[in-house]
Design goal:
heterotetramer; A alpha+beta (285); B alpha+beta (159); C alpha+beta (752); D alpha+beta (81); C: 752 residues; Aldehyde Oxidoreductase, domain 4; Aldehyde Oxidoreductase, domain 3; six-stranded mixed β-sheet; 20 helices; 27 strands; D: 81 residues; alpha+beta; 5 strands; 26% strand
Chain lengths: 285, 159, 752, 81
């Protein structure tokens, strides 16, 4: 294994473009190192991006949107009052990843690029309408989060492409987001199901909504039908049931050591309802 | 690839070592610097017994590469008491019988020290969630939580 | 019959809570555990393990691995004793251990060791095992106990069944146990209500945080040194010597600090392999398991399938109890089906009781002891049925248990009459405890359960040497898992009459003491404690002799009081008391060093009982259970160091909570373990648990000088049932399968 | 003579009896006598058994005394965790 510490993203991109074999970028390392130690994946080339300037920065743009550097760890997000108040659902989702120790390392970009269908922050980012800044040899572009996951453990990023930051849109008035996941214990588990919801109100009716689900399909997905089920409605019992129904319909899970098909499908509905209530309350306050 | 030369500061001392790029910080602390207080219980960041502070952040040293330590400041259990006197947490853990086998103890002490530095007045629930990544199989956590809360109260009073 | 000189009161040190002697080392990171030892020129080992549940090894080629730079030795089964043959009877177990640490012709489970490498670094060793080529011929496998007993099941190994197994069972049944008394059919006829039900529990792992680790040095002169994490280094010495054709006395084994065992470190896994690698490379070899190796290849518990039938009268009298307990113990005999059967009904005084236990082979790792092996599962099944009977007959669960409770003189379900026991006292304490009458909210439920364990004595040797300055050092041979050095020092202080701090207790290596049985069966505070007391008395005897000589009076005229030799009465003469220090100061000149000894096999461990109360809340939408409140009430006989007794109670309860709710071995249809890590093998976290309250009941054990009963194991017997009863009350359905994970609870609720 | 109680699973090796009368003064003599009287029990006893004498469970010791009126049970070998 070769270990590199490039000083710019273009250098990182060049390194990965020209490298042979298995290439991994190292940010927080909480997935890369686990896979290395467990002999699941031993990269031939490991590119540590943490020496690149500004990778640890959280920046608020003049329009109120946010840019989160690729190496910002969970604890740093959780300590950031501004982003927490704009996007509480996203920050809570990040905070759910692993322990205090993992929070000292794990990053949004890593969680996204690991390609796990059960990644906690990804449904929240998708619901929030976030984008990733992707850098390759021809420059940089913004890609919506829902375009990044490809299949379990794989992303749509090509060789020589590296994510430098995550961008969250400006917080709209009368809107709120939430993320919930189900795990058997209180902490430390991988989501059996995850659900992110972001909604905007006009009066007490929902005018805009984005609903996403994790761990119930091969990648995290945005569920348009679930959003439609609540748009134009108040969040009454009937609407919640319709939301749950739409969420369950979108499920195509597997049975494994973390949950059965029936259980995951059932829980998707339960979490969609609970997350919607939290997001709704946040939008009202 | 050949070994990487790493210079770092551990518990205030400048140290250097050579490591394979695949070796973790935990491997390096234990095998190259003879600091065996951090333990490998899982190697996957699930048990917390290798907890150390890296530039002020609590991390699992099994999920950090040795090479990443270049130019960093690392604090381990060996640096918790710098002179004859134990850290109040160490004293209280002994007094409360908050350890049985003791394998998780260094990690839990490093983690709880980090907690009290950040939050001098944690609730029982806050202590429990802060320590969710530090597995203990012997105690049922009861006496550990009591020792931490008791230390926190003493430290607040001393201020 | 109580020991003539049993002491019940007036303790000065016993019952206090001093700091443990190893505390400083353990809070500073200085304590040396299995993986913390290094030797000059040391190599690192790694073990290649089977990915298959059951397969024949057709070819094993290590030549490519041998050529890798830095590889110094490779061992396979051929490098172990050839004198150990597959046979029946008591020699079979040695063969089983050998076959388990290194496969012979077949691999029998996912994780079974096939070959091992020693190399100049851990990374090189791990790289090297990937270069070993193994050709497997895959065989049909079975991992479920009921499937393994069914007709046509794949047979794990022919010829394992011992004489106890009746005709007509397939070859996976290795042992059979049947016991009881009275006539259960008559008893069932007397019942007003009979409940009959079936239960299953999954295998759980002891889950000690420290993986198995050792550092071995062995030359071709047959002399060796082994440093390892173990519950019993004397047993490790004996078995390693046998597996490597060494003379036992030529191998010195030193026990490291042990990072948890719970029964799982009572047997060898990596130690003989490291010794074989060391002999072949002529260098010290360190071998440390990874966490996934611990899960795949070391001892989980048995999984079980159980049928229970209990009859009860309207007034709560149990008229008959019957149980069938099928335990799989992996690919080797040894599952404690017999102990499960014997413990099942032990808390109750029954006129009619009948129990059957099976020990069944499957393609899983060889089960190892785990805290009261077999008993928690039995309690889960039996106490669930009793709970159901109480509910249906509208009876208070504690009153019913009190009505039927075993007492002194009760004929136990496993045969003999009980001596002094404390079950009734734990039930009375439970009834009086504020927890039992605290109000519950909607969606919450309360469960109670009793539990029983035998406890154990075993070979024990202790020596207690006095120093010239009047201090004492105790050498014991039982590794300290939970603070036992502290208890030993307290008992010695009590006898000698010198302060606790003046005594140091050390776990001696195998060259220092006679054979000591493993630290298991909750035996340490009982047996090593008894041995420490007797060794101290032996030393006092010798001290008294020195005083008598000095005073010129017979030894019988000297008694030991408060740390001093004094004349036994006015007739003995008028002499100033001589303190221990006065007598040791010149001991070299008055007859030489003074050392007290005890070497024997104490028999009289004294069984123990517990009653647990637990409140649980179930989220009916998600099936998640929260433990709200937990109280452990257990008979300790006499608590030497109450903090560490409480620690055992709390630890056992916590492990029981994990077993009940989330811990399980999950096998795929390919026979591979799906959750070999702490991520998906879910042991309780700090955030999962409430404080665990404890009540120490003390009904002295007649077989110990101070009345000590072992406390380590009984605490894990009641939780599975107590939690199942609480969950059933909260959710309104009976849970019959462990763990009661959220998907299982939701499925049960949907099937309501 | 000492009355020795067998567990039910052993009856078929002892002519269907669940108690056996044996002349013995200690645990070892009981086990020897049982093996001599019922050779089929040998394998079971050799694999390891415990004995209870008047409610006291003797896990392994052969020298523990027994008396004419002692209550004696043969038990499966005990072990722990």
């Amino acid at each position: 294994m070769q270990y590199y510490t490039p000083e710019s993203f273009s250098e990182a991109s060049e390194l990965s473009k020209n490298a042979e074999g298995i290439i991994r970028f190292l940010a927080g390392g909480t997935d890369v190192l686990v896979q290395l130690r467990a002999d699941i994946t031993t990269p031939d080339v490991l590119i540590d991006i943490k020496k690149i300037p500004d990778v640890k920065k959280i920046k608020k743009n003049p329009d109120g949107s946010w840019c989160i550097g690729a190496a910002v760890c969970g604890a740093e997000l959780n300590e950031h009052e501004g982003i927490k108040s704009d996007w509480p659902g996203v920050v809570e989702a990040v905070d759910l990843i692993g322990s205090t120790q993992i929070q000292g390392r794990a990053t949004l970009v890593g969680n996204l690029c690991n390609g796990s269908p059960a990644a906690d922050s990804v449904p929240a980012l998708m619901a929030a309408g976030a984008t990733a800044t992707v850098i390759n040899s021809s420059g940089s572009r913004e890609v919506s989060i829902e375009k990044i996951p490809h299949s379990p453990g794989r992303t749509t990023l090509g060789k020589g492409e590296v994510v430098s930051a995550i961008n969250l849109p400006a917080h709209k008035p009368n809107s709120g987001d939430a993320y919930l996941r189900l795990i058997p214990r209180t902490e430390m588990d991988i989501a059996v199901v995850g659900c992110g919801i972001n909604l905007t109100l006009e009066g007490d009716k929902i005018s805009e909504a984005r609903v996403s689900l994790g761990a119930v399909t091969p990648t995290v997905i945005l569920v348009d039908a679930a959003a439609k089920a609540i748009i134009g409605k108040q969040l009454d019992e009937q609407t919640l049931e319709a939301l749950a129904e739409a969420a369950r319909k979108a499920c195509n899970p597997i049975s494994d050591r973390r949950g059965t098909i029936e259980y995951r499908t059932h829980i998707a509905g339960v979490l969609a309802k609970r997350a919607a209530k939290i997001a709704y309350e946040r939008a009202r306050s | 690839m050949s070994n990487i030369h790493v210079n770092t500061i551990v518990n205030g001392d400048e140290v250097g070592f050579l490591c394979d790029p695949r070796e973790t910080l935990l491997d390096c602390l234990r095998d190259k610097l003879s600091l065996t207080g951090a333990k490998e219980g899982c190697g996957t960041g699930d048990c917390g017994s290798c907890s150390v502070k890296l530039d002020g952040r609590l991390v699992c040293s099994c999920l950090v590469l040795g090479a990443e330590a270049e130019g960093k400041k690392i604090e381990t259990i060996e640096g918790m008491s710098r002179d004859e006197k134990l850290h109040p947490l160490q004293e209280k853990f002994i007094e409360h019988a908050a350890l049985q086998c003791g394998i998780c103890t260094p990690g839990i002490l490093v983690a709880t020290k980090a907690l009290l530095e950040k939050n001098p007045n944690p609730s029982e629930t806050e202590v429990r969630y802060w320590l969710a990544g530090n597995l203990c199989r012997c105690t049922g956590y009861d006496k550990i939580i009591r020792a931490v809360l008791d230390t926190a109260a003493d430290l607040r009073e001393a201020k | 019959m109580a020991l003539d000189d049993q002491r019940k009161s007036g303790f000065k040190f016993v019952g206090t809570r001093p700091n443990r002697p190893d505390g400083m080392d353990k809070v500073t990171g200085r304590a040396k555990f299995g993986a913390d030892m290094y030797a000059p020129g040391m190599l690192h080992g790694a073990i290649l393990r089977s990915p298959h549940a059951h397969a024949k090894i057709n070819k094993l080629d290590v030549s490519r691995a041998e050529k890798l730079k830095g590889v110094k030795a490779i061992v396979t089964r051929a490098d172990f004793s050839k004198k150990i043959n597959f046979t029946s009877g008591k020699d079979l177990e040695t063969w089983n251990v050998l076959e388990n640490i290194m496969a012979g012709e077949k691999v029998l489970y996912d994780g079974h060791a096939v070959a091992a490498v020693a190399a100049t670094s851990a990374l090189v060793a791990r790289d090297a095992i990937k270069l070993i080529e193994v050709q497997y011929e895959i065989l049909p496998h079975v991992t479920d106990v009921d499937a393994a007993m069914a007709k046509g099941a794949p047979i794990v190994r022919e010829g394992v069944a011992d004489k106890s197994v009746p005709e007509g069972l397939n070859s996976n049944v290795a042992r059979y146990h049947e016991s009881g008394h009275g006539d259960v059919e008559v008893g069932f006829k007397e019942a007003d209500l009979i409940v009959e039900d079936s239960f299953k529990t999954e295998a759980t792992h002891q889950g000690y945080i420290e993986p198995h680790a050792c550092l071995a040095t062995l030359g071709n002169d047959g002399k060796g040194e082994l440093w390892c994490t173990t519950q019993g280094h004397f047993y490790f010495q004996k078995i390693c010597a046998a597996l490597l054709d060494l003379e036992t006395s030529q191998l010195r084994v030193t026990a490291s600090e042990i990072g948890g065992g719970f029964g799982g470190k009572t047997t060898v896994f990596v130690e003989p392999v490291a010794l074989a690698l060391s002999r072949k490379s002529n260098r010290p070899v360190k071998l440390v398991m990874s966490r996934s190796e611990v899960f795949r290849a070391t001892g989980p518990t048995s999984s079980t399938s159980m049928d229970i039938k209990i009859g009860m009268k309207k007034d709560g009298t149990i008229t008959a109890g019957q149980g069938t307990f099928r335990l799989q113990g992996g690919a080797f005999p040894g599952a404690p089906g017999d102990l499960t059967a014997m413990c099942a009904f032990a808390p109750y005084s029954l006129k009619n009781v009948h129990q059957i236990g099976y020990d069944v082979l499957t393609n899983r790792p060889k089960q190892a002891a785990y805290r009261a092996p077999g008993s928690p599962m039995a309690a889960f099944a039996v106490e669930s049925v009793i709970d159901e009977l109480c509910k249906k007959l509208n009876l208070d669960p504690i009153e019913v248990r009190l009505k039927n409770a075993s007492r002194k003189g009760t004929k136990a379900s496993f045969g003999p009459k009980f001596d002094e026991i404390g079950l009734v006292e734990t039930l009375e304490a439970a009834k009086e405890h504020p927890h039992y009458s605290a109000p519950l909210k909607v969606g919450q439920g309360r469960g109670i359960s009793c539990g029983f364990w035998f406890n154990f004595g075993g070979e024990t040797a202790v020596s207690l040497a006095l120093s010239e300055d009047g201090t004492a050092q105790i050498s014991v041979g039982t590794p300290d898992i939970g603070g036992s050095r502290s208890s030993m020092a307290l008992m010695a202080a009590e006898e000698l009459g010198i302060p606790y701090d003046h005594i140091r207790c050390t776990i001696a290596d195998t060259a220092t003491l006679g054979y000591n049985e493993i630290s298991h069966g909750s035996r340490v505070t009982y047996a090593s404690g008894l041995a420490t007391i007797k060794a101290a008395k032996d030393a006092i005897n010798k001290l008294s002799k020195r005083a008598a000589d000095k005073w010129g009076i017979p030894k019988e005229a000297v008694k030991w009081e408060d740390g001093c030799a004094v004349p036994s009465g006015p007739n003995a003469g008028n002499f100033q008391p001589l303190s221990l220090k006065d007598l040791t100061k010149n001991m070299g000149k008055t007859g030489g060093p003074i050392v007290g000894h005890f070497e024997a096999t104490p028999e009289g461990a004294g069984v123990s009982f517990a009653t647990h109360i637990v409140d649980a809340e179930v989220d009916p939408d998600t099936g998640k259970t929260k433990i709200l409140r937990y109280t452990v009430i257990q008979d300790a006989g006499k608590a030497i160091h109450p903090s560490y007794v409480e620690g055992q109670y709390q630890g056992g309860a916590a492990q029981g909570i994990g077993w009940a709710l989330n811990e399980e071995y999950i096998y795929g249809s390919d026979g591979r373990l799906q959750n070999a890590g702490f991520l998906d093998y879910r042991i309780p976290l700090a955030s999962d648990l409430p404080m665990i309250d404890t009540v120490i009941v003390e009904v002295p054990n007649p077989g110990h000088p101070y009345g000590v009963r072992g406390v380590g194991e009984t605490s894990i017997c009641p939780p599975l049932a107590a939690i199942a009863n609480a969950v059933s009350a909260a959710a309104g359905i009976r849970l019959r399968e462990l763990p009661m994970s959220p998907p299982r609870i939701v499925a049960a609720l949907n099937g309501k | 003579m000492v009355q020795v109680n067998l567990w039910a699973g052993l009856r078929r090796f002892a002519d269907g009896k669940d108690t056996v009368e044996i002349k013995a003064q200690n645990v070892g003599e009981i086990l020897n006598a049982l093996e001599n009287k019922y050779p089929e029990l040998k394998e079971i006893i050799e694999a390891g058994v415990s004995v209870s004498v008047d409610g006291k469970i003797i896990a392994s010791g052969l020298t523990e005394p027994v008396y004419e009126d002692s209550e004696v049970f043969l038990l499966q070998q005990l072990k722990g965790g």
